[in-house]
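re: ur question from earlier - yeah i can do the single chain one, its not a big deal. heres the input i used so u can compare w yours
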Amino acid sequence: MPIRFRLENDNVRAVRFAVSPLCEAVMSLNALIFPRERGLQHGWIRAMRELPASLRRELTAFSFVLDFAVPDCILPTPGRRTAATWDDELARVAALAPAEAGYELTRPAFHYVLEPAPGPAAFERLDVRELVELRAARYGPEAVATARLAWTDPEHLLQRFVALLQAYWERAFAEEWRRLGPRLETVARRDARTVLTRGVYAVLDGRFADTVVDRNAGWFVRGSPHDHEVRPSRRRPVTFVPSVYVWPHVRVNCDAPWPLAVIYPPADVRADARAEPVPEALPRSLRALAEPTRLQLLRVIAARPRSTEELAHLVGLSTAGTSKNLALLAGAGLVRRRRDGYYVLYELVPGGLAAAADALEAYVASPGDEDGCETMAGATGGEP
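and the output i got, formated as tokens:
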């Protein structure tokens, strides 16, 4: 079953942008839960092995909240493009009514299966509690005990959740946000301009896990156990939140009272996740160089221009075999022919070897881009 957003390319008034440190921190925690899906963020995942054991245990205890569908209460204020502060966003979560917080933190475990009456009264149903405990049981008995607080002591659950986020921020993510925050603000400004000038699907123009985009029909679909069609409008806009750590997924929300939201990996991150195409000439050069006889030919040609017959004698090949190897070197732009009376001489192309070496180095190196968002995902956690 899908969540289908009906959003025509020119319906730009239905789109807002926001940047959120809280949302990005939660996305990074989700990456820690599913490291095998997150090759692009493995630098960060490896760095998080240094977190204190007590903090890692608490993260495990709350993994049932942060795994497949993140709580909607962490979503940013619609249309706030400039990044809100961490303190403001965390205070907004801490200010939730405890009973509502218990419901919101556990709702993804049961809402899309049972769809009980909304609000904390849902916990009066035994099957709701059983589904919450079943989700938590994947992460061990401490997670099950934590999940039960949603109906036995939601105030304590909320306090622990807020304390967990604050500890993670202080020990790890504050420094990461100082690096990512300005870049994501740049992305939000750029993508907002792109939507105005080229339409929504100039931003949602990539392949995402579990998401299908049809720009011509004016919709995108996110795979979900929840079957719902959403039509954003000027009165109820959808907030696009660029995120490095959400890759390769797109996360969406379509349930009131929280804002319609799409958390998406921007073009810079999607580019980092794709291998750069190899320049067509580079494999020809490398194949031409990857054979000892052709390297010998280059060495003796470097001394002075030589004829095919002379070269055949020097490298111990037939004239026909020498001609074949010289053709490969010429096709790679490493040697060229010139006539000297009756003879055809081969000489090095000036700068040909240097050009091949430069092309190889340029391809292997990791270039940045013009917007200053270079290797946003690749630099995560301080590891390229």
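The chain is about 50% helix and 10% strand. not sure if urs matches, ping me
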